[in-house]
Amino acid sequence: MALPFSGRKDGLSLSEALPDRSLFILVAMMSFLAALTLTGATGARTLSTRWAGGAAQLLTIQVSEPDQPLAVTSKADKTAQPTRADAVLADLATLPTGTQVHRLTQDELARLLTPWLGDAGKTALPLPAVIEVRLAEGQEAPTNLEQTLDAHVPGTVVEHNAEWSTRLRALAQSLLACAALALATVGGIATMITALATKAGLSTRRDIIKILHGLGATDSYIAGRFAWRTGGLALGGGLLGTLLAMAPLLLLFRMAAPFAASTLQAASTTMPDWRTLPDLLPGDMLIGLAALPFVAAFIGWVTTQFMVRVWLRRLP
Amino acid sequence: MIRLTNVSWRRERKASTPVLSNLSFEVPQGGFRWLLGPSGAGKTSLLSLLHVESLPSDGTLCLLDKDVTAHTHRSVLVRLRQRIGMVHQDFRLMPDLSVADNVALPMRLQHRPEDEITDEVQSILKWVGLGDQLGVRASRLSGGEQQRTAIARAIVHRPGLILADEPTNALEEPQAHKLLDMFSELSSMGTTVIVATHNEALVRRLPRPALVLERGRLVQDGA
Ligand SMILES: Nc1ncnc2c1ncn2[C@@H]1O[C@H](COP(=O)(O)OP(=O)(O)OP(=O)(O)O)[C@@H](O)[C@H]1O
Ligand SMILES: [Mg+2]
Protein backbone atom coordinates (compact mmCIF):
# COMPACT_ATOMS: atom_id res chain seq x y z
CA MET A 1 0.00 0.00 0.00
CA ALA A 2 1.32 3.42 -0.91
CA LEU A 3 1.74 5.55 2.17
CA PRO A 4 1.36 9.30 2.34
CA PHE A 5 4.94 9.51 3.58
CA SER A 6 7.02 12.11 1.91
CA GLY A 7 10.46 10.61 2.31
CA ARG A 8 12.65 12.53 4.69
CA LYS A 9 10.37 15.47 5.35
CA ASP A 10 10.71 16.94 8.81
CA GLY A 11 8.54 20.05 8.60
CA LEU A 12 11.38 22.57 8.33
CA SER A 13 10.32 23.51 4.75
CA LEU A 14 13.60 25.25 4.18
CA SER A 15 12.76 26.10 0.58
CA GLU A 16 10.30 28.57 2.10
CA ALA A 17 12.31 29.57 5.16
CA LEU A 18 15.43 30.20 3.07
CA PRO A 19 14.02 31.29 -0.28
CA ASP A 20 16.40 30.76 -3.15
CA ARG A 21 16.07 34.06 -4.91
CA SER A 22 17.87 36.57 -2.71
CA LEU A 23 20.74 34.38 -1.50
CA PHE A 24 21.25 32.77 -4.90
CA ILE A 25 21.40 36.07 -6.77
CA LEU A 26 23.58 37.79 -4.20
CA VAL A 27 26.06 34.92 -4.18
CA ALA A 28 26.04 34.91 -7.99
CA MET A 29 26.95 38.61 -7.98
CA MET A 30 29.65 38.06 -5.37
CA SER A 31 31.13 35.20 -7.40
CA PHE A 32 31.07 37.31 -10.54
CA LEU A 33 33.10 39.95 -8.72
CA ALA A 34 35.41 37.36 -7.24
CA ALA A 35 36.02 35.78 -10.65
CA LEU A 36 36.96 39.12 -12.17
CA THR A 37 39.23 39.92 -9.25
CA LEU A 38 40.84 36.51 -9.45
CA THR A 39 41.59 37.06 -13.12
CA GLY A 40 43.03 40.48 -12.46
CA ALA A 41 45.21 38.97 -9.76
CA THR A 42 46.38 36.19 -12.07
CA GLY A 43 47.21 38.72 -14.75
CA ALA A 44 49.15 40.87 -12.34
CA ARG A 45 51.01 37.85 -11.05
CA THR A 46 51.88 36.60 -14.52
CA LEU A 47 53.32 39.99 -15.45
CA SER A 48 55.10 40.23 -12.14
CA THR A 49 56.83 36.85 -12.59
CA ARG A 50 57.69 37.76 -16.14
CA TRP A 51 59.27 41.00 -15.03
CA ALA A 52 60.98 39.36 -12.10
CA GLY A 53 62.23 36.20 -13.77
CA GLY A 54 62.04 36.95 -17.46
CA ALA A 55 62.65 40.54 -18.29
CA ALA A 56 65.17 41.13 -15.52
CA GLN A 57 67.34 38.37 -16.92
CA LEU A 58 67.09 39.74 -20.41
CA LEU A 59 69.61 41.99 -22.14
CA THR A 60 69.06 43.46 -25.53
CA ILE A 61 72.17 44.40 -27.44
CA GLN A 62 72.16 46.50 -30.59
CA VAL A 63 75.06 46.45 -32.96
CA SER A 64 75.00 49.14 -35.64
CA GLU A 65 76.32 48.38 -39.10
CA PRO A 66 76.47 44.73 -38.18
CA ASP A 67 77.79 43.41 -41.45
CA GLN A 68 80.78 45.72 -41.68
CA PRO A 69 84.10 44.14 -40.81
CA LEU A 70 85.24 44.84 -37.30
CA ALA A 71 88.23 47.02 -37.97
CA VAL A 72 89.99 48.44 -40.95
CA THR A 73 93.08 49.32 -38.93
CA SER A 74 94.46 45.82 -39.31
CA LYS A 75 96.67 45.01 -42.22
CA ALA A 76 95.23 41.57 -42.54
CA ASP A 77 93.00 40.42 -45.33
CA LYS A 78 89.63 42.12 -45.20
CA THR A 79 87.72 38.96 -45.91
CA ALA A 80 89.27 37.21 -42.93
CA GLN A 81 87.93 39.92 -40.63
CA PRO A 82 84.85 38.96 -38.60
CA THR A 83 81.86 41.25 -38.98
CA ARG A 84 81.00 43.62 -36.12
CA ALA A 85 78.01 41.46 -35.16
CA ASP A 86 80.11 38.28 -35.10
CA ALA A 87 82.68 40.01 -32.93
CA VAL A 88 80.02 40.92 -30.37
CA LEU A 89 78.65 37.38 -30.50
CA ALA A 90 82.13 36.03 -29.90
CA ASP A 91 82.55 38.29 -26.88
CA LEU A 92 79.18 37.19 -25.54
CA ALA A 93 80.22 33.57 -25.79
CA THR A 94 82.55 34.20 -22.86
CA LEU A 95 79.58 34.87 -20.55
CA PRO A 96 78.94 32.19 -17.90
CA THR A 97 77.54 28.87 -19.10
CA GLY A 98 73.74 28.69 -19.16
CA THR A 99 73.52 32.05 -20.93
CA GLN A 100 71.46 31.96 -24.09
CA VAL A 101 72.50 34.25 -26.88
CA HIS A 102 70.32 34.70 -29.92
CA ARG A 103 70.69 37.09 -32.81
CA LEU A 104 67.27 37.93 -34.21
CA THR A 105 66.96 36.84 -37.81
CA GLN A 106 65.95 39.25 -40.53
CA ASP A 107 62.42 37.88 -40.40
CA GLU A 108 62.07 38.24 -36.65
CA LEU A 109 63.37 41.77 -36.84
CA ALA A 110 60.99 42.61 -39.64
CA ARG A 111 58.04 41.23 -37.67
CA LEU A 112 58.96 43.34 -34.63
CA LEU A 113 59.17 46.47 -36.68
CA THR A 114 56.07 45.94 -38.78
CA PRO A 115 53.79 48.02 -36.53
CA TRP A 116 56.13 51.00 -36.81
CA LEU A 117 57.68 50.77 -40.25
CA GLY A 118 55.16 48.77 -42.22
CA ASP A 119 56.74 46.16 -44.42
CA ALA A 120 60.22 46.45 -42.88
CA GLY A 121 61.74 43.85 -45.13
CA LYS A 122 61.77 46.34 -47.92
CA THR A 123 62.92 49.32 -45.95
CA ALA A 124 66.02 51.09 -47.05
CA LEU A 125 66.94 51.95 -43.48
CA PRO A 126 70.12 50.33 -42.26
CA LEU A 127 68.95 48.03 -39.48
CA PRO A 128 71.18 47.18 -36.52
CA ALA A 129 71.65 43.61 -35.38
CA VAL A 130 69.57 42.85 -32.33
CA ILE A 131 70.97 40.22 -30.01
CA GLU A 132 68.89 38.86 -27.20
CA VAL A 133 70.86 37.61 -24.20
CA ARG A 134 69.02 35.58 -21.60
CA LEU A 135 71.07 35.11 -18.46
CA ALA A 136 70.74 31.95 -16.44
CA GLU A 137 68.54 32.08 -13.30
CA GLY A 138 70.26 34.09 -10.58
CA GLN A 139 73.00 35.34 -12.89
CA GLU A 140 73.77 38.99 -13.35
CA ALA A 141 75.35 40.63 -16.33
CA PRO A 142 78.90 41.92 -15.73
CA THR A 143 78.55 45.61 -14.83
CA ASN A 144 81.19 46.65 -17.37
CA LEU A 145 79.69 44.63 -20.22
CA GLU A 146 78.67 47.70 -22.19
CA GLN A 147 82.12 49.35 -21.84
CA THR A 148 83.88 46.14 -22.83
CA LEU A 149 81.70 45.60 -25.89
CA ASP A 150 81.76 49.26 -26.87
CA ALA A 151 85.55 49.34 -26.61
CA HIS A 152 85.85 46.29 -28.79
CA VAL A 153 83.05 47.09 -31.22
CA PRO A 154 82.36 50.83 -31.08
CA GLY A 155 78.67 51.82 -31.26
CA THR A 156 77.30 48.78 -29.45
CA VAL A 157 74.41 49.57 -27.10
CA VAL A 158 73.40 47.34 -24.20
CA GLU A 159 69.89 47.76 -22.89
CA HIS A 160 69.32 46.35 -19.47
CA ASN A 161 65.74 45.78 -18.30
CA ALA A 162 66.45 45.34 -14.61
CA GLU A 163 65.65 48.86 -13.49
CA TRP A 164 62.23 49.35 -14.98
CA SER A 165 61.33 45.74 -14.31
CA THR A 166 61.82 46.36 -10.57
CA ARG A 167 59.38 49.24 -10.70
CA LEU A 168 56.83 47.35 -12.73
CA ARG A 169 57.17 44.43 -10.37
CA ALA A 170 56.40 46.67 -7.38
CA LEU A 171 53.33 47.91 -9.26
CA ALA A 172 52.21 44.37 -10.04
CA GLN A 173 52.68 43.37 -6.45
CA SER A 174 50.55 46.21 -5.12
CA LEU A 175 47.91 45.21 -7.66
CA LEU A 176 48.10 41.69 -6.26
CA ALA A 177 47.67 42.99 -2.73
CA CYS A 178 44.61 44.99 -3.82
CA ALA A 179 43.14 41.90 -5.44
CA ALA A 180 43.70 39.86 -2.28
CA LEU A 181 42.01 42.59 -0.25
CA ALA A 182 39.08 42.67 -2.69
CA LEU A 183 38.71 38.87 -2.52
CA ALA A 184 38.76 38.96 1.29
CA THR A 185 36.10 41.69 1.25
CA VAL A 186 33.91 39.71 -1.13
CA GLY A 187 34.31 36.67 1.14
CA GLY A 188 33.38 38.78 4.17
CA ILE A 189 30.27 40.14 2.47
CA ALA A 190 29.25 36.63 1.40
CA THR A 191 29.63 35.48 5.01
CA MET A 192 27.46 38.34 6.26
CA ILE A 193 24.78 37.73 3.62
CA THR A 194 24.63 34.05 4.54
CA ALA A 195 24.51 34.89 8.23
CA LEU A 196 21.61 37.30 7.71
CA ALA A 197 19.70 34.82 5.55
CA THR A 198 20.24 32.10 8.14
CA LYS A 199 19.08 34.39 10.93
CA ALA A 200 15.91 35.23 9.03
CA GLY A 201 15.31 31.54 8.31
CA LEU A 202 15.81 30.64 11.96
CA SER A 203 13.34 33.23 13.16
CA THR A 204 10.60 32.10 10.77
CA ARG A 205 11.18 28.46 11.79
CA ARG A 206 11.62 29.12 15.49
CA ASP A 207 8.60 27.08 16.67
CA ILE A 208 9.23 24.23 14.26
CA ILE A 209 12.86 23.99 15.41
CA LYS A 210 11.71 23.92 19.03
CA ILE A 211 9.37 21.03 18.25
CA LEU A 212 12.12 19.14 16.41
CA HIS A 213 14.49 19.81 19.29
CA GLY A 214 11.88 18.47 21.72
CA LEU A 215 11.46 15.33 19.62
CA GLY A 216 15.18 14.62 19.99
CA ALA A 217 16.73 16.20 16.88
CA THR A 218 20.46 16.73 17.39
CA ASP A 219 22.16 20.08 16.86
CA SER A 220 24.10 18.64 13.96
CA TYR A 221 20.88 17.45 12.30
CA ILE A 222 19.21 20.87 12.46
CA ALA A 223 22.39 22.79 11.63
CA GLY A 224 23.09 20.35 8.79
CA ARG A 225 19.65 20.84 7.27
CA PHE A 226 20.11 24.60 7.18
CA ALA A 227 23.75 24.41 6.09
CA TRP A 228 23.11 22.10 3.14
CA ARG A 229 20.39 24.45 2.00
CA THR A 230 22.54 27.61 2.10
CA GLY A 231 25.57 25.67 0.85
CA GLY A 232 23.56 24.38 -2.10
CA LEU A 233 22.22 27.84 -2.93
CA ALA A 234 25.72 29.29 -2.69
CA LEU A 235 27.07 26.56 -4.96
CA GLY A 236 24.41 27.35 -7.58
CA GLY A 237 24.95 31.09 -7.26
CA GLY A 238 28.71 30.60 -7.43
CA LEU A 239 28.42 28.53 -10.60
CA LEU A 240 26.19 31.09 -12.27
CA GLY A 241 28.37 34.05 -11.27
CA THR A 242 31.57 32.36 -12.43
CA LEU A 243 30.06 31.32 -15.75
CA LEU A 244 28.78 34.84 -16.36
CA ALA A 245 32.24 36.20 -15.61
CA MET A 246 33.80 33.98 -18.26
CA ALA A 247 32.68 36.19 -21.17
CA PRO A 248 34.42 39.41 -20.09
CA LEU A 249 37.40 37.34 -18.91
CA LEU A 250 37.99 35.73 -22.28
CA LEU A 251 37.74 39.12 -23.94
CA LEU A 252 40.24 40.58 -21.50
CA PHE A 253 42.67 37.74 -21.94
CA ARG A 254 42.52 37.92 -25.68
CA MET A 255 43.43 41.58 -25.52
CA ALA A 256 46.22 40.98 -22.99
CA ALA A 257 47.75 38.00 -24.80
CA PRO A 258 50.22 39.98 -26.98
CA PHE A 259 51.79 41.50 -23.84
CA ALA A 260 52.28 38.23 -22.06
CA ALA A 261 55.00 36.85 -24.34
CA SER A 262 58.28 36.37 -22.54
CA THR A 263 60.78 36.84 -25.37
CA LEU A 264 61.03 39.09 -28.33
CA GLN A 265 61.01 36.08 -30.65
CA ALA A 266 57.64 34.88 -29.37
CA ALA A 267 56.15 38.35 -29.35
CA SER A 268 53.24 38.75 -31.66
CA THR A 269 51.33 41.86 -32.48
CA THR A 270 48.11 40.15 -33.35
CA MET A 271 45.45 38.90 -30.99
CA PRO A 272 45.21 35.14 -30.74
CA ASP A 273 42.48 33.24 -32.48
CA TRP A 274 39.38 32.51 -30.39
CA ARG A 275 39.94 28.79 -30.81
CA THR A 276 43.47 28.78 -29.40
CA LEU A 277 42.51 31.09 -26.53
CA PRO A 278 41.75 28.37 -23.96
CA ASP A 279 45.34 27.13 -24.31
CA LEU A 280 46.63 30.57 -23.42
CA LEU A 281 44.66 30.86 -20.16
CA PRO A 282 46.91 30.09 -17.20
CA GLY A 283 46.12 26.74 -15.62
CA ASP A 284 46.12 27.99 -12.06
CA MET A 285 43.60 30.66 -12.94
CA LEU A 286 41.27 28.05 -14.43
CA ILE A 287 41.66 25.99 -11.26
CA GLY A 288 40.89 29.10 -9.18
CA LEU A 289 37.76 29.85 -11.19
CA ALA A 290 36.59 26.25 -11.00
CA ALA A 291 37.13 26.30 -7.23
CA LEU A 292 35.14 29.51 -6.80
CA PRO A 293 31.64 27.94 -6.61
CA PHE A 294 32.91 25.40 -4.10
CA VAL A 295 34.52 28.11 -1.99
CA ALA A 296 31.19 29.97 -2.05
CA ALA A 297 29.39 26.78 -1.00
CA PHE A 298 31.90 26.19 1.77
CA ILE A 299 31.52 29.74 3.10
CA GLY A 300 27.73 29.31 3.09
CA TRP A 301 27.89 25.92 4.75
CA VAL A 302 30.32 26.90 7.51
CA THR A 303 28.60 30.20 8.28
CA THR A 304 25.20 28.55 8.60
CA GLN A 305 26.54 25.68 10.72
CA PHE A 306 28.02 28.23 13.08
CA MET A 307 24.92 30.45 13.23
CA VAL A 308 22.47 27.61 13.79
CA ARG A 309 24.60 25.94 16.44
CA VAL A 310 24.98 29.19 18.35
CA TRP A 311 21.23 29.80 18.07
CA LEU A 312 20.46 26.28 19.35
CA ARG A 313 22.57 26.91 22.46
CA ARG A 314 19.68 28.85 23.96
CA LEU A 315 17.69 25.61 24.10
CA PRO A 316 19.03 23.08 26.62
CA MET B 1 12.86 6.33 37.14
CA ILE B 2 12.51 9.96 38.05
CA ARG B 3 14.00 11.66 41.10
CA LEU B 4 13.70 15.33 42.00
CA THR B 5 15.53 16.78 44.99
CA ASN B 6 14.67 20.34 46.06
CA VAL B 7 14.02 21.40 42.48
CA SER B 8 13.08 25.02 41.86
CA TRP B 9 12.54 26.68 38.53
CA ARG B 10 12.35 30.34 37.53
CA ARG B 11 11.31 31.38 34.08
CA GLU B 12 14.13 33.94 34.07
CA ARG B 13 17.30 33.87 36.06
CA LYS B 14 16.45 37.03 38.02
CA ALA B 15 12.69 36.39 38.35
CA SER B 16 11.53 37.09 41.92
CA THR B 17 9.07 34.24 42.40
CA PRO B 18 9.87 30.77 41.13
CA VAL B 19 7.22 28.97 39.04
CA LEU B 20 8.14 25.75 40.84
CA SER B 21 9.67 25.75 44.30
CA ASN B 22 11.45 23.07 46.25
CA LEU B 23 9.94 19.98 44.65
CA SER B 24 11.13 16.59 45.87
CA PHE B 25 9.59 13.32 44.74
CA GLU B 26 10.45 10.02 43.15
CA VAL B 27 8.66 7.86 40.58
CA PRO B 28 9.98 4.33 40.03
CA GLN B 29 10.42 2.95 36.53
CA GLY B 30 7.05 1.66 35.33
CA GLY B 31 5.20 3.90 37.78
CA PHE B 32 2.00 5.78 36.87
CA ARG B 33 1.32 9.19 38.42
CA TRP B 34 -1.48 11.63 37.98
CA LEU B 35 -0.34 15.25 38.03
CA LEU B 36 -3.12 17.37 39.53
CA GLY B 37 -3.66 20.94 40.63
CA PRO B 38 -5.61 24.06 39.77
CA SER B 39 -4.96 25.99 36.60
CA GLY B 40 -1.70 27.91 36.85
CA ALA B 41 -0.31 25.63 39.54
CA GLY B 42 2.68 24.70 37.39
CA LYS B 43 1.75 21.33 35.88
CA THR B 44 2.85 22.22 32.38
CA SER B 45 6.01 23.80 33.76
CA LEU B 46 6.90 20.65 35.67
CA LEU B 47 6.31 18.47 32.62
CA SER B 48 8.56 20.71 30.51
CA LEU B 49 11.32 20.29 33.09
CA LEU B 50 10.85 16.53 32.95
CA HIS B 51 11.02 16.76 29.14
CA VAL B 52 14.35 18.63 29.48
CA GLU B 53 13.00 21.64 27.59
CA SER B 54 14.57 23.72 30.33
CA LEU B 55 16.84 22.94 33.24
CA PRO B 56 16.06 23.45 36.97
CA SER B 57 17.34 26.67 38.52
CA ASP B 58 18.15 24.79 41.73
CA GLY B 59 18.20 21.23 42.99
CA THR B 60 18.94 18.00 41.19
CA LEU B 61 16.86 16.17 38.61
CA CYS B 62 17.51 12.57 37.60
CA LEU B 63 15.71 11.09 34.58
CA LEU B 64 16.08 7.58 33.19
CA ASP B 65 19.27 7.08 35.25
CA LYS B 66 20.84 10.38 34.12
CA ASP B 67 21.44 13.39 36.37
CA VAL B 68 20.50 16.16 33.96
CA THR B 69 21.60 18.89 36.40
CA ALA B 70 25.20 17.66 36.58
CA HIS B 71 26.59 19.65 33.63
CA THR B 72 25.45 16.96 31.26
CA HIS B 73 26.64 17.31 27.68
CA ARG B 74 24.09 18.43 25.09
CA SER B 75 24.33 15.18 23.16
CA VAL B 76 23.38 13.27 26.33
CA LEU B 77 20.31 15.48 26.79
CA VAL B 78 19.34 14.93 23.14
CA ARG B 79 19.51 11.17 23.56
CA LEU B 80 17.52 11.48 26.76
CA ARG B 81 14.82 13.48 24.97
CA GLN B 82 14.60 10.75 22.33
CA ARG B 83 13.60 8.32 25.08
CA ILE B 84 10.76 10.53 26.32
CA GLY B 85 7.33 10.80 24.68
CA MET B 86 5.55 14.08 25.32
CA VAL B 87 1.95 15.02 24.55
CA HIS B 88 1.82 18.80 24.73
CA GLN B 89 -1.24 20.67 25.91
CA ASP B 90 -1.15 22.56 22.59
CA PHE B 91 -0.18 19.44 20.55
CA ARG B 92 2.77 21.08 18.70
CA LEU B 93 2.33 19.23 15.42
CA MET B 94 4.13 20.22 12.22
CA PRO B 95 1.29 22.00 10.41
CA ASP B 96 2.67 21.36 6.90
CA LEU B 97 3.30 17.65 7.35
CA SER B 98 0.81 14.82 6.92
CA VAL B 99 -0.47 12.92 9.94
CA ALA B 100 1.80 10.00 9.01
CA ASP B 101 4.90 12.18 8.64
CA ASN B 102 4.20 13.86 11.97
CA VAL B 103 3.96 10.55 13.74
CA ALA B 104 7.03 9.20 11.92
CA LEU B 105 9.23 12.09 13.07
CA PRO B 106 10.60 10.71 16.37
CA MET B 107 11.59 7.46 14.63
CA ARG B 108 13.11 9.27 11.67
CA LEU B 109 15.20 11.44 13.96
CA GLN B 110 16.54 8.22 15.44
CA HIS B 111 17.37 6.90 11.96
CA ARG B 112 15.16 3.84 12.27
CA PRO B 113 14.68 1.84 9.05
CA GLU B 114 11.90 3.22 6.87
CA ASP B 115 9.95 -0.05 6.60
CA GLU B 116 9.88 -0.37 10.38
CA ILE B 117 8.64 3.23 10.57
CA THR B 118 5.90 2.47 8.04
CA ASP B 119 4.66 -0.51 10.05
CA GLU B 120 4.72 1.22 13.42
CA VAL B 121 3.12 4.43 12.20
CA GLN B 122 0.35 2.61 10.37
CA SER B 123 -0.59 0.43 13.31
CA ILE B 124 -0.44 3.20 15.92
CA LEU B 125 -2.59 5.50 13.77
CA LYS B 126 -5.09 2.73 13.23
CA TRP B 127 -5.20 2.25 16.97
CA VAL B 128 -5.98 5.92 17.68
CA GLY B 129 -8.66 5.84 14.98
CA LEU B 130 -6.84 7.85 12.30
CA GLY B 131 -6.12 4.88 10.02
CA ASP B 132 -7.86 6.51 7.07
CA GLN B 133 -6.36 10.00 7.51
CA LEU B 134 -2.67 9.21 7.13
CA GLY B 135 -2.17 11.69 4.30
CA VAL B 136 -4.12 14.60 5.73
CA ARG B 137 -2.09 17.68 6.60
CA ALA B 138 -1.98 18.31 10.33
CA SER B 139 -3.26 21.87 9.88
CA ARG B 140 -6.51 20.43 8.46
CA LEU B 141 -7.29 18.25 11.49
CA SER B 142 -9.93 18.88 14.15
CA GLY B 143 -8.80 19.42 17.74
CA GLY B 144 -9.52 15.82 18.73
CA GLU B 145 -7.73 14.48 15.66
CA GLN B 146 -4.72 16.68 16.41
CA GLN B 147 -4.66 15.41 19.97
CA ARG B 148 -4.77 11.79 18.82
CA THR B 149 -1.98 12.47 16.33
CA ALA B 150 0.09 14.02 19.13
CA ILE B 151 -0.56 10.97 21.32
CA ALA B 152 0.46 8.63 18.50
CA ARG B 153 3.68 10.63 17.98
CA ALA B 154 4.48 10.43 21.71
CA ILE B 155 4.26 6.64 21.91
CA VAL B 156 5.26 5.42 18.43
CA HIS B 157 8.95 5.02 19.31
CA ARG B 158 8.27 3.13 22.58
CA PRO B 159 9.75 5.70 24.96
CA GLY B 160 10.80 4.83 28.50
CA LEU B 161 8.93 7.83 29.89
CA ILE B 162 5.60 9.23 28.73
CA LEU B 163 4.55 12.74 29.76
CA ALA B 164 1.01 13.76 28.85
CA ASP B 165 -0.36 17.25 29.43
CA GLU B 166 -4.18 17.15 29.45
CA PRO B 167 -4.14 14.40 26.81
CA THR B 168 -7.91 13.86 26.88
CA ASN B 169 -9.36 17.38 26.93
CA ALA B 170 -10.26 17.28 23.22
CA LEU B 171 -11.35 13.64 23.22
CA GLU B 172 -14.74 12.01 23.62
CA GLU B 173 -15.24 9.83 26.67
CA PRO B 174 -14.79 6.41 24.99
CA GLN B 175 -11.57 7.58 23.32
CA ALA B 176 -10.34 9.00 26.62
CA HIS B 177 -11.02 5.71 28.38
CA LYS B 178 -9.29 3.75 25.65
CA LEU B 179 -6.23 6.01 25.93
CA LEU B 180 -6.16 5.64 29.69
CA ASP B 181 -6.27 1.86 29.40
CA MET B 182 -3.31 1.99 27.07
CA PHE B 183 -1.29 4.24 29.38
CA SER B 184 -2.04 1.86 32.22
CA GLU B 185 -0.93 -1.11 30.14
CA LEU B 186 2.27 0.64 29.03
CA SER B 187 3.13 1.41 32.64
CA SER B 188 2.59 -2.19 33.66
CA MET B 189 5.04 -3.12 30.88
CA GLY B 190 7.72 -0.85 32.39
CA THR B 191 7.12 2.61 30.94
CA THR B 192 6.93 5.44 33.45
CA VAL B 193 3.80 7.52 32.79
CA ILE B 194 2.85 10.96 34.15
CA VAL B 195 -0.51 12.42 33.13
CA ALA B 196 -1.55 15.98 34.01
CA THR B 197 -5.31 16.49 34.04
CA HIS B 198 -8.27 18.44 35.39
CA ASN B 199 -10.65 15.57 34.64
CA GLU B 200 -11.68 14.14 38.01
CA ALA B 201 -13.91 11.47 36.49
CA LEU B 202 -10.88 10.10 34.70
CA VAL B 203 -8.85 10.03 37.90
CA ARG B 204 -11.64 8.17 39.65
CA ARG B 205 -11.73 5.62 36.84
CA LEU B 206 -8.02 4.81 37.23
CA PRO B 207 -7.06 5.28 40.87
CA ARG B 208 -3.29 5.79 40.96
CA PRO B 209 -0.95 7.88 43.16
CA ALA B 210 -1.12 11.61 42.43
CA LEU B 211 1.36 14.45 42.50
CA VAL B 212 -0.62 17.52 43.49
CA LEU B 213 0.71 21.02 42.83
CA GLU B 214 -0.55 24.28 44.29
CA ARG B 215 1.06 27.57 43.30
CA GLY B 216 4.27 25.82 42.35
CA ARG B 217 4.56 23.74 45.52
CA LEU B 218 3.97 20.04 45.92
CA VAL B 219 1.17 19.37 48.42
CA GLN B 220 1.05 15.64 47.76
CA ASP B 221 4.08 13.75 46.51
CA GLY B 222 2.42 10.56 45.26
CA ALA B 223 4.32 8.27 47.61
N1 LIG C 1 4.87 31.87 28.72
C1 LIG C 1 4.72 32.26 30.00
N2 LIG C 1 5.30 33.41 30.41
C2 LIG C 1 5.18 33.82 31.68
N3 LIG C 1 4.53 33.15 32.61
C3 LIG C 1 3.93 31.98 32.26
C4 LIG C 1 4.01 31.48 30.93
N4 LIG C 1 3.33 30.32 30.89
C5 LIG C 1 2.86 30.11 32.13
N5 LIG C 1 3.21 31.10 32.97
C6 LIG C 1 2.91 31.16 34.40
O1 LIG C 1 3.57 30.07 35.04
C7 LIG C 1 2.76 29.53 36.02
C8 LIG C 1 2.59 28.03 35.81
O2 LIG C 1 1.98 27.85 34.56
P1 LIG C 1 1.65 26.40 33.99
O3 LIG C 1 1.34 26.53 32.57
O4 LIG C 1 2.80 25.51 34.37
O5 LIG C 1 0.36 26.00 34.83
P2 LIG C 1 -0.60 24.73 34.60
O6 LIG C 1 -0.70 24.06 35.93
O7 LIG C 1 -0.14 23.91 33.49
O8 LIG C 1 -1.97 25.43 34.25
P3 LIG C 1 -3.14 24.83 33.31
O9 LIG C 1 -3.84 23.81 34.13
O10 LIG C 1 -4.00 26.00 33.07
O11 LIG C 1 -2.52 24.30 32.10
C9 LIG C 1 1.42 30.28 35.97
O12 LIG C 1 1.44 31.21 37.02
C10 LIG C 1 1.44 31.00 34.66
O13 LIG C 1 0.82 32.24 34.77
MG1 LIG D 1 -0.87 23.42 31.65
UniProtKB/TrEMBL annotation, chain A:
Keywords: Cell cycle, Cell division, Membrane, Transmembrane, Transmembrane helix. It comes from the Bacteria. The keyword Cell wall biogenesis/degradation does not apply. The chain crosses the membrane at residues 22-41, 175-196, 240-266, 286-312. GO terms for biological process: cell division. Coiled coil: none annotated. This is Cell division protein FtsX. It comes from Acetobacter malorum DSM 14337. The lineage of its organism: Bacteria, Pseudomonadati, Pseudomonadota, Alphaproteobacteria, Acetobacterales.
Automatic annotation (TrEMBL), chain B:
Keywords: ATP-binding, Cell cycle, Cell division, Nucleotide-binding. InterPro entries: AAA+_ATPase (IPR003593), ABC_transporter-like_ATP-bd (IPR003439), ABC_transpr_LolD-like (IPR015854), P-loop_NTPase (IPR027417). Signal peptide: none annotated. Residues 2-223 form the ABC transporter domain. It holds the Pfam family ABC_tran. One of its GO terms (biological process) is cell division. GO terms for molecular function: ATP binding; ATP hydrolysis activity; transmembrane transporter activity. It comes from the Bacteria. SMART domains: AAA. GO terms for cellular component: plasma membrane. Gene3D superfamilies: P-loop containing nucleotide triphosphate hydrolases. The keyword ATP-binding applies. This is Cell division protein FtsE. The lineage of its organism: Bacteria, Pseudomonadati, Pseudomonadota, Alphaproteobacteria, Acetobacterales.
